[in-house]
What does this fold into?
Amino acid sequence: MTHLQMTHVFATMLLKQYNKRLPAGEEPAFLTVWNKEFLKTDFLSHDPGEVILTNGDAYNIIFFTGTKDTYTFYLRKSDVYKVLQGVFVLSNLISPLITLSAGGLRYEEMMVGPVPVISNIFTMEELPFAEWPERVKVVGNSICAPYFWKIESMTKGWVSNFATDKDGNAINLAEARAVSDPNEMELFLNYLAEKTTMDT
It folds into this structure.
């Protein structure tokens, strides 16, 4: 398991933990967007996929971003595709350091000639992209999330910012952060506590 693959596993775990904390009746998040710097695995002497996580691992395996806040906003499903496709293109044609993990999703990455292409997007519950709602609820941390408000400036006005509220109205970054929202470390520790209970 590569570092990026492991980040995707953790991003999906964070999505599940985030949804478990929601009050009854509140719409669950559809996916998470996370960066691979969330984890550090260079201290491990073996394949990260072989790691058995314990409570003592929390502060070792989570890098400094582990204390970052979480933000919640909505994206059109077409914009989710644009983000995944855009990052895949940039990672292959510009720099492999440009990455993004979409927790809660699985999809295929392939090269069609010289062109990087994303296809066959499903949720972990096997819901195909074609059947998604028009807008989906997204959770990101304070490293990834702000970029959804920089798209317009980065494209010099050619593309509007993607992030909206549930009804498609533009919101600012501050409005996407609720005081009650957990940070990454809280979600990870909840997962470890749950895992410890299951293992005992």
